[in-house]
Structures are given as structure tokens and as C-alpha cells.
Write a structure and sequence with these properties.
The chain is mostly helical. The chain folds into two domains: about 160 residues, no CATH class; about 160 residues, Homeodomain-like (Arc Repressor Mutant, subunit A, Orthogonal Bundle), CATH 1.10.10.60. About 40% of the residues lie in helices and about 5% in strands. It is built from 15 helices and seven strands. The strands form three sheets. Strands 2-3-4 form a three-stranded antiparallel β-sheet, with no helix packed on it. Strands 1-5 form a two-stranded antiparallel ribbon. Strands 6-7 form a two-stranded antiparallel ribbon. The protein is elongated and about 65 Å long. The relative contact order is 0.14. It binds a DNA duplex through helix 3 and helix 6. It comes from Pyrus ussuriensis x Pyrus communis. It is found in: Nucleus.
Length: about 375
DNA sequence: AAGCCGGGCAACCGCCATATC
DNA sequence: GGATATGGCGGTTGCCCGGCT
């Protein structure tokens, strides 16, 4: 290939770009659940998607895979990321390897949007405090706009870093301009905590291992909160090279705000001995990818039923690697309107969108 | 109420590494 | 060993949404 490095997996004239629609998501999930993803380039065509293979891969890895941990980063995760970044730099995939269920893209985003600023503030803070005082006293003040709980969204925390925090702020990367006032994520916790003038309470605020951050939309499903807290966590010294978080992320579905994932949650209890129909050649890959660890046959069937689809069942159909609409007997037919489904903003927030879309006579009849 | 602005994040782009022929 | 195909990674962009004026 003369143009090494160029992504030639797709013809830009032919592929769809931009946000993924629910229908596309479903197609991708359906296909991968049935066939695995041994060949990303061929996948979109076989799955009936007008997408670039790389786009499918990214969508799967970063969002649709059941292995992806949905939800917010805990304070500990954030601290771990900062430490790892200090040691590894922008090796996002390496950093992500320490956080099962977290993707490099997600960690990269968290770093760029939150942690980089926080670190900059800490560095600045440490400079300020070291020049003005040698005291190691933590002087955290809290400016509340009247609400009494964290999570109300209005609290500003003027934060001078602790010794522990400043000790981590050794990154030599350029600092972003920032003030010493940090807008704490209003949802940086699992449950409201009373704020008083009690310094102890303030300390808890800044060190609690139960707080979670980056709640993207504020609706937290308690069943999906993945606690990283453990006794003495705040004093825990991190391994420089390896942070073993295995066993912490055991729930493959962690979208705290998405009915889509909630619905999938509902089907976990239904996971059964249903045989996963796989192409033989794909099975090893499928299993080694970890996909096989999560038996999603039932929720897949549910989704397919919701859209009036049923999975290919016979060997020939499987070899054809296509999902057949109900009633179709030959070549797979992806309803035209299926691709014309709108992509409403925030569809992620409600799986009802599938039902709503289906409830439309024209859409339903298209299937 | 409407417009503006900034933050957050999903997705894309281009390059590199590795596998395969 | 070279050419090509594919996967993977990191940087960046652009859209959406909530808060502010």
C-alpha cells in the first residue's frame, strides 16, 4: 500500500459519519454478539452498516461493549489516573489497562477535561503555599451558596492542597492557567453529605473514597455504582507500576444514566444456558476477546424482538453472517427506514426511543 | 425568554505497529 | 524481504447541553 497509515477501510463517499443512531448501535451489537469481531473491515458490510470499520470498532470498544464500565470515575480512580499519567505520560491505553472496563478514550477525556486542570491547580497551589508558608496545614475552606449538601451543584471549594496531594503534583507538563478555586463536580458523591463547618466533614469531603466523580448527568443508579472504597483506602499507597483493580469491576453494565443499559441490566438475571451461536472460526476470537464472559444471548434476543428481528439460526444463515428480518427467507434485508431513523439528541438517555420508534406504524411496518 | 459561552464527550483523523501474503 | 492489510493509539474536532448574562 503506497499510502501506509491512511485509513483505507472505507470510502468516505459511501460511509455514514457522525453520531450513531440507535438502529446502528443495535445492528452492531447484534452482529458482534452473534459473530464476534474478528474482522473490523468486513464487519460493517456484513452487519449492514454504512460505517467505516474503524468507526465500528471504536463504537464497540468505547461504548457498546458489555465490558465497558459505564458510570463515573471515582475519586480513587481519578487519583490513580493522575499517578499513572505522571509515570507513563499520555499512554492512555496503558493507563486504561489498569482500569478494567475503562477505555483509553474515556480516560483521555477525563484527563483533558478534569484531571489536567486539577493537577495544574495543585501545582499552582503548591507553589503558592510553599512560597508563602512552610506549614503543612490543610486549609480547605468551603464556600457554599446556601445549599447544605454536596451535590447541589453550587458549592465551590477553595482548595489548598494537602501534602499528599502536592506530592503527587510533580508532573512537569505545562500547566493550564487556573485559579485556586476549583469547581467540584456537583455529583461527586454517591449520597448527599451534610456539610458543616466541621473540619472533619471537610476532610471527608476531600478524601472520601466513596465519592464518585464525573457524573455526566446526575442520575445515578445505585445498583450500578461501582465502589472502589475499601478500608483505609485514603491512606493506601499506590503501586507505582501496577494498580490491581481486578475484581472491582465485575458488572459489565455500568451506564448509570442510560435506560439502554438499565434494560440490559434487567436481562442479566435471564442469562442462561442459551447456546451462543457462533461461527466456528470466530469462536476462539470471540471468547478470547472476553465477550464470551458475558452471555448476552437473551438481551440480544430481546432487542431483536423489540425491533422485529430474529437471529440467523441455521448454519447457512450463520455463514452468511447476516441478521434476518422476521419473515425474510433469503438475503438479509435491512429496512430502508431503518437507516433513516433519526438520531435524536440524547437518545442514550432513554431506551424508550426504540419503543417509540417502533410504535410508529410506518417504522414498524418497515420491519 | 433568548442568546451566548464554555465544558464535556463521542467520534474522527492520521500515524504507527504488527500481521499476513 | 517487501508490499499490503488491518488493528491500535493518541491528538484533535465539533456537537450538544447546561449555566450564565
Amino acid at each position: 500500500m503506497g499510502e501506509k497509515g491512511k485509513s483505507l477501510c472505507c470510502d468516505k463517499e459511501q460511509v455514514r459519519r457522525g453520531p450513531w443512531s440507535p438502529a446502528e448501535d443495535l445492528k452492531l451489537v447484534t452482529y458482534i454478539q452473534k459473530n464476534g469481531h474478528h474482522n473490523w473491515r468486513a464487519l460493517p458490510r456484513r452487519a449492514g452498516l454504512m460505517r467505516c470499520g474503524k468507526s465500528c470498532r471504536l463504537r464497540w470498544i468505547n461504548y457498546l461493549s458489555p465490558d465497558v464500565k459505564r458510570g463515573n470515575f471515582t475519586r480513587e480512580e481519578e487519583e490513580s489516573i493522575m499517578k499513572l499519567h505522571e509515570a507513563l505520560g499520555n499512554k492512555w491505553s496503558t493507563i486504561a489497562a489498569h482500569f478494567p472496563g475503562r477505555t483509553d478514550n474515556e480516560i483521555k477525556n477525563v484527563w483533558n477535561t478534569h484531571l489536567k486542570k486539577r493537577l495544574a491547580c495543585r501545582n499552582l497551589s503548591s507553589l503558592t503555599s510553599s512560597s508563602s508558608s512552610s506549614s503543612s496545614t490543610t486549609t480547605t475552606t468551603l464556600l457554599s451558596s446556601g445549599k447544605t449538601t454536596v451535590g447541589g451543584g453550587d458549592e465551590l471549594i477553595e482548595h489548598q492542597s494537602t501534602d499528599q496531594e502536592t506530592s503527587m503534583a510533580t508532573n512537569n507538563k505545562p500547566h493550564e492557567p487556573c485559579s485556586l478555586t476549583i469547581q467540584e463536580n456537583p455529583n461527586h458523591q454517591d449520597s448527599p453529605m451534610e456539610l458543616t463547618n466541621d473540619p472533619k466533614g471537610l476532610k471527608e469531603l476531600t478524601t472520601s473514597s466513596n465519592v464518585s466523580s464525573n457524573e455526566s448527568n446526575g442520575s445515578s443508579n445505585s445498583s450500578q455504582v461501582v465502589g472502589m472504597s475499601r478500608p483505609g483506602a485514603e491512606e493506601r499507597q499506590m503501586d507505582d507500576d501496577l494498580i490491581d483493580l481486578s475484581g472491582i469491576f465485575d458488572n459489565p453494565f455500568h451506564e448509570s444514566d442510560s435506560d439502554f443499559w438499565n434494560m440490559l441490566d434487567d436481562f442479566q438475571p435471564l442469562q442462561s444456558n442459551e447456546v451462543q451461536v457462533l461461527h466456528e472460526a470466530d469462536e476462539a476470537n470471540y471468547q478470547s476477546s472476553g465477550l464470551g464472559q458475558v452471555e448476552n444471548g437473551n438481551w440480544l434476543s430481546y432487542l431483536q424482538n423489540e425491533l422485529g428481528f430474529e437471529a440467523a439460526a441455521t448454519e447457512s444463515e450463520i455463514n452468511n453472517q447476516e441478521i434476518l428480518p422476521k419473515g425474510a427467507t433469503e438475503q438479509p434485508v435491512i429496512p430502508e427506514t431503518f437507516d433513516k431513523m433519526p438520531n435524536p439528541a440524547g437518545y442514550d438517555e432513554s431506551m424508550d426511543y426504540f419503543q417509540t420508534w417502533l410504535s410508529s406504524p410506518e417504522n414498524n411496518s418497515a420491519i
